């Protein structure tokens, strides 16, 4: 039987991970600490097997946000990566190279959600072909969604 291996990392590629084993619960958390960590409306996290995580390059730096919680981030680019708690570890869904099957299954701290969060996807979609053409012309320094032996934009090596 083939072991499942998932990969991912931060925006600049300095922090990369490999996860062996089955992932746990994918969730959205509406608490204020998650909003601040992600600079967003909520966090999207998935529980990972704590002993199945291998940090390939650098490890995250951590900020202790409460008595029992550490929040990991890339020390170079600041990408939010982890939510570490006694006995467990969650990793931000957006940091996985393949996120297509990581749809959240539960919302946590629902009472703390922003009142308009349920209607954000009801908003109109920008329909401006020139905008998308300009976006395609941008030269990105973001690490690709795959493992690479060398990422020249940052001079990082595996």
Features:
mainly beta; 158 residues; 12 strands; three-stranded antiparallel β-sheet; glutathione-dependent formaldehyde- activating enzyme (gfa)
Structure overview:
The chain is mainly beta. The protein has one domain (5-157): Alpha-Beta Complex (glutathione-dependent formaldehyde- activating enzyme (gfa)), CATH 3.90.1590.10. It is built from two helices and twelve strands; from the N terminus they run βββαβββββββαββ. The strands form three sheets. A seven-stranded mixed sheet has the order 6-7-8-9-4-3-10. A three-stranded antiparallel sheet has the order 1-2-5, with no helix packed on it. Strand 1 and strand 2 form a beta hairpin.
Helix-residue proportion: under 10%
Look up the CATH topology. Answer: glutathione-dependent formaldehyde- activating enzyme (gfa)
* Main beta sheet: 7 strands, mixed
- The count of DSSP E runs of length 2 or more, i.e. the number of strands, is 12
Structural class comes to mainly beta
Whole-angstrom Rg: 17 Å
In DSSP terms (H or I, runs of 4 or more residues), the helix count works out at 2
Low-confidence regions = none
The outline comes out as: globular
- Please, what is the average pLDDT? 89
CATH architecture: Alpha-Beta Complex
For the record, the CATH class is: Alpha Beta
